[in-house]
Design goal:
The protein is an alpha/beta fold. It has eight helices and 16 strands. The protein has an eight-stranded mixed sheet, sandwiched between helices. A hairpin with a 7-residue loop joins strand 11 and strand 12. It starts with 19 loop residues before the first helix and ends with a strand.
Length: 369
């Protein structure tokens, strides 16, 4: 039976935004026997590791290295909730693996809904400099025992598709260990797991699973972990049609996380089936959130163009959810890109205080019949 049958969203966290304090309270109330504080952030917030399982295969995973990427935190919370419906699956899985999961590695960024931490450092580009406190906690944990696999859990922007049509709702990567992108045994271990996950999910979300570029990034966490010998799998949660709150993405992220852990428990460092990884289509940058087509501006000469808009996700203190603020990204001939929402403005009025839309500025125009 597909794990989708057991999926249950954790109702304590209904929004895409997760308050760190609410998460900490939940962990202390519901999972206090399984959590341990591994350090404190730049702004002195706790960073918790959840440890579950008694198996011999050791797995390290972490969520919200980038504070504005909450799907992996949701996925772990939802996975534990889903296991209430599937105690036998839970017992079987955790008899084979031991999972250390860092919740919200960047709680300061998570509170403000920013990619960077409070000292404006991208943790995923701080592997060597160690300018952030938080990356040191992750690296210290990674060397504290022999981990057989690592799961580097992220989200990606709405711009990506698998084929120019379907959104890349989930994307995966077996990171490169060098500039040459050599397919090493460690990469094959990752590829085998990803291929198995792909086989389970491709019927659930057909044409919506992609493969991230395997360009080598010398300062990134995943590339350096795998270079050091720890097979590391990148997850990227992405767009699902008409679902900017990413509730559907959250669901399939959870299902993918389960199948990744299950595959790891069964493969146990074997590379059987790794070749199927190459069948996964590579992500393409093809979309904006909204494209207004054939907009006739209020100029002295006839000027008809396209206007591309992308939402920026903003958190305002005291609110329960993020807001989506539309910004103009491109104006002119936007035929090389599509919009998840396309609006034909032929014969309609462009109403604005300015003659031309200003790039990188919040949308200040209306289209009326």
């Amino acid at each position: 039976m597909n794990f989708e049958h057991f999926y249950t969203a954790n109702s304590d966290f209904p929004n895409r935004y997760i308050s760190p304090e609410k998460l900490f309270s939940y962990l202390q109330t519901n999972l206090k026997d399984y959590i341990q504080e591994i350090g404190r952030s730049y702004l002195d917030k706790p960073i918790y590791k959840l440890s579950v399982g008694t198996g011999k295969i050791n797995i390290l995973a972490w969520s919200q290295m980038h504070g504005n990427e909450s799907n992996a935190t949701h996925a772990m919370l939802d996975l534990l909730k889903s296991f209430d419906k599937a105690p036998e699956l839970k017992a079987n899985l955790f008899s084979k693996i031991s999972l250390d999961f860092i919740f919200m590695l960047n709680p300061d960024g998570s509170e403000k809904w920013t990619r960077l931490n409070a000292s404006e450092i991208d943790l995923n580009r701080d592997f060597h400099n160690e300018a952030s406190k938080e990356i040191k906690f992750l690296k210290n944990l990674a060397t504290s025992k022999k981990y057989d696999y690592a799961l580097n859990l992220h989200e990606q922007r709405t711009i990506f598709t698998t084929d120019g049509i379907h959104p890349a709702t989930l994307s995966f990567l077996a990171p490169s260990e060098n500039v040459e992108r050599t397919v090493t045994d460690n990469r094959k271990k990752c590829m085998a797991v990803i291929a198995d996950v792909y086989n389970h999910l491709k019927e659930l979300i057909p044409n919506q699973i992609g493969r991230y570029s395997d360009e080598f990034y010398p300062t990134s966490t995943g590339d350096n972990f795998i270079k050091a010998g720890m097979p590391t799998i990148l997850f990227e949660g992405g767009h699902f049609a008409d679902d900017y709150s990413r509730k559907e993405t959250r669901k399939y992220y959870t299902i993918a996380l389960y199948y990744a852990l299950k595959s790891i428990s069964e493969l146990d460092s074997d590379i059987t089936g790794w070749e199927a990884y190459q069948e996964i289509p590579e992500n393409q940058e093809t979309h904006y959130d909204v494209v207004y087509r054939n907009v006739k501006l209020n100029t002295d000469h006839e000027c008809i163009l396209d206007i591309a808009v992308q939402y920026r996700e903003v958190y305002e203190e005291g609110k329960d959810e993020i807001s989506f603020i539309p910004f103009v990204i491109e104006a002119g001939d936007v035929k090389k890109r599509k919009g998840w929402l396309e609006i034909d403005c032929t014969g309609k009025k462009y109403i604005s205080d300015t003659k031309y839309p200003k790039l990188e500025a919040e949308v200040n125009f209306k289209i009326e019949d």
